[in-house]
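Review session, final week

We close the course with one last complete record, chosen because it touches almost every idea we covered. It is Ribulose-phosphate 3-epimerase, a protein from Sphingomonas jinjuensis with 219 residues. Go through it on your own first, then we will talk.
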Amino acid sequence: MQPVRIAPSILSADFARLGAEVQAIDQAGADWIHIDVMDGHFVPNISFGPPIIKAIRPLTTKPFDVHLMIAPVDRYLDAFAEAGADTISVHVEAGPHIHRSLQHIKSLGKRAGVVLCPGTPAKSLDYLLELADLVLVMSVNPGFGGQKFIDNQLKKIAAIRKMIDASGRDIDLEVDGGVDHDTARRCIEAGADALVAGTSVFKDGPDGYARNIAGLRAG
Ligand code: DX5
Ligand code: ZN
């Protein structure tokens, strides 16, 4: 298996210096840039949308890992693709037509991700894996950075690892929420191969980014 990919979440960045922050995490070794889009409806918080993604797109060549916490979602997929997303991840819980959303993302030539909230079982992936390039397991309830990792999600990560291996498909297994040095190791042991981290990357300011990213990758 390839080394775990680290995707710092810019939700924890200094928004007044967002361009410089994106360049700093790129230089510090981020594999992907994780971009949390929140609508104040699907989740109780509002962040940013396509114009911000478009503005930072020229500042790095690292893939944009766009996590959509919005409902409805389908009508916005084209805009996120045009803004520069590489992977577009949508929640199983965001509406009745997740299968269609994944088909739509693939038709735009983008990598399709499917996201499960902590209360959603692994089984909900049964008829979706064939369309997925990435599965994102939420280890907190979505909406805010800085929350505590929910331990029982490790069992779900292990179950999904088995499902992915059985599928024979090349699907990334990413974990998002409360990932720090300790929980990163446990996620990797359970089968994760990509980790989102906000607080634990950004907490020490720019001088700590490279150290914190490397620490998470080492598990
Ligand atoms: C939560 C977001 C996460 C969050 C991670 O809804 O999807 O990406 O920003 O932040 P930390 O690492 O602080 O839990
Ligand atoms: Zn996220």
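Two points worth writing down before the exam:
The two ends are 14 Å apart (CA to CA).
The longest helix spans residues 153-167.
Good luck, everyone.
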